[in-house]
Amino acid sequence: MDEPTAELKADADERAESPEFGSLTPPAEVVHGDRTRDDFLDAVLGLDSPATVGDVAEHAGHGVDAAREYLKWFNRMGIVTQVTESPATYERNQEYLNWRRVQRLRDRHTTDELLDYLTAETERDEEYSEVFEADSPNDVSVAARASDSDRSVEEVWEDVSAWKTTRRRISLLERALRTDSGDSTAQRTAV
């Protein structure tokens, strides 16, 4: 992949800090505005389970016919996938959103920066593993850990959630560095 243009590269101050993953545009804000398409996109990005055309129309505040047309278009673009035909239900395609985040990381950061961020996130992951004495955040029982450590369930849950976020960041960074991600854009090498 070609290096990003100068205006897309992080300056020296920005490089001193790890990327703000929260600034990678949350799914609900990929596109936002007053236009009908934006209303439907906002509704679709807010889905956490399959929804009917009527459900999406209601969430978007528009008619069912318009919802049907936009959902067909979003399906062709890969933003949603159709789950059932009768009644037609759709769900958000999380892989598409992840792909967008990976592309944004590639566009905004150099390979060396991505490697530095990956190193920092990997170290954070190892620290969580040591603290929780577990290989994965999914192996941690929040209630049991809270009871054993004299911490509140909420505090332990926040730490486990932060560990899961660290794992998602590692996955995104690894994909941004991968040379064989399966898309047709030019790729970077991590080596």
- Uncertain segments of ≥5 residues (pLDDT<50)? 180-191
Q: What Rg is obtained from the alpha carbons, in whole angstroms?
A: 20 Å
Quote the beta fraction: 5-15%
Strand order of the largest sheet: 1-3-2
InterPro entries: DUF7342
Protein name: Sugar-specific transcriptional regulator TrmB
Pfam families: DUF7342
Biased composition (Basic and acidic residues): 1-18
Key traits:
Sugar-specific transcriptional regulator TrmB; flat; disordered C terminus; 3 strands; 2 domains; mainly alpha; DUF7342
Describe what you observe in this structure.
The protein is mainly α and 191 residues long. It folds into two domains: 12-19 and 109-177, no CATH class; 27-93, Arc Repressor Mutant, subunit A, CATH 1.10.10. It is built from eight helices and three strands.
Give a short summary of the structure:
The chain has 191 residues and is mostly helical.
Map the helices and strands.
Elements: H1 12-15, H2 36-45, E1 51-52, H3 53-60, H4 64-77, E2 80-85, E3 88-92, H5 94-108, H6 111-132, H7 142-149, H8 153-177
Antiparallel strand pairs: 1-3, 2-3
Helix pairs in contact: 2-3, 2-4, 3-4, 5-8, 6-8, 7-8
